[in-house]
Structure formats: C-alpha cells, structure tokens
Write a structure and sequence with these properties.
Elements: H1 2-18, E1 60-71, H2 80-86, H3 91-103, H4 120-129, E2 135-147, E3 152-168, E4 173-183
Antiparallel strand pairs: 1-2, 2-3, 3-4
C-alpha cells in the first residue's frame, strides 16, 4: 500500500510540474496599475470546458487537507536531473496569474506566518524590490479523494503559497521565504 501511495504522490508531482506552457520572455514585474498585456492561456490539451474537480460522489476523502512544497527552480547548475525535471515547467504563467488576481482583488493574499490577510501594499512592496523569477518554491494545500469504483485519485488544490529562495554560500544551502499564500476556494468573482 505504501508503494502505491508513493507512486501516486510522485505521479501527481510530475503531473503538476509538467502541466505548464512556454510563454514569451517579458519583464516579470508588472506595475499593479497596469493591465496585463500578456494573455495567460491554458495548455493546448485542456479544453476550456474541462471540469478539473470531477469528484466521484462515493470517493473517499484521503486528506483534508495535505500540504507539501515543490522546488520549482534549479539552484544547482551541475544537477542534470533537476534540470530535466524542471525543463517543461513554466512557473512564470502561474506566478503572474496569482499576482494579477491579488492586484485585481480576485484573491486575498495571506501572511504565511500569522495566517491573516496581508495589506496589498506589502505584496506591492515585495514585487517592487524583487524579481518574480526569484520565486523557487510553491507549497500546495490540497484535498485528496480516492474512488474505489473507478480506482482514480483526484486532487483539489485549495491553496498556493509562493516563496523565494536565497542561497547561503557559506553553508551551501538554500533558504526559502514565503511571500504570501492564497486560498483558491475563496475567489472573489465580483472583482475584475
């Protein structure tokens, strides 16, 4: 059973990492008062009418929730596996979409430590003093469901935390610092 859960976890991580598209190289930082000029599109293989969370009504709730982090930036230039693992990842699409959703009021940014809503000025300040390509880790908060009927597992992502990394050259380790997290089940549909 442990082998099956491990394989399912690895497969889901690979799926999340591989489900992104390439986009143009543009400046990561967007002035919050400007409109997004770069259109964010779905991967070509996902129909616009796709139901992402088609959960069998008899599915067993496996986790409510589970949180885990994924390093999404290669900090080691000599690590071929890390380079290959991330080669089809376009984090820029997700990061820009989350920042724009926060700026437009569609998502509320939360402080990772206090779990309280963050002032939008704090997000703007980070965005002004950093480059978005410094973001190297994402933590997902998910509900997991398993259907005995169809033998399928479904994950519903309910939250995403963005974190940027800093390399401590004296000890050769990377430290990550959360910027904010958003709750995807709290989307403000009235905001534009």
């Amino acid at each position: 059973m442990k082998k099956i859960l491990t394989i399912l976890l690895l497969a889901s991580c690979i799926f999340v990492t591989s489900c992104t598209t390439n986009s143009n190289n543009t400046n990561n930082n967007q002035d919050s008062t400007q409109t997004v000029k770069e259109e964010i599109s779905q991967p070509a293989f996902v129909p616009e009418t796709e139901t992402y969370y088609n959960i069998d009504s008899a599915a067993l709730l496996i986790s409510n929730p589970i949180s885990y982090d994924v390093t999404v930036k290669n900090y080691k230039t000599d690590d071929d596996w890390e380079e290959e693992r991330l080669s089809k990842t376009n984090l820029k699409v997700l990061v820009n979409a989350l920042f724009q959703a926060v700026y437009k009021g569609r998502l509320t940014p939360y402080d990772w430590v206090s779990e309280q809503p963050m002032p939008i000025d704090s997000v703007k300040s980070w965005d002004k003093h950093h480059k978005r390509d410094e973001i190297g880790k994402i933590m997902f908060t998910e509900d997991w469901y398993f259907s005995e009927k169809t033998l399928t597992m479904t994950k519903k992502i309910t939250g995403i935390t963005l974190a940027y990394g800093r390399i401590n050259k004296s000890i050769g380790e990377i430290s990550f610092y959360p910027i904010f997290y958003v709750k995807l089940d709290e989307v403000n549909e009235t905001a534009k």
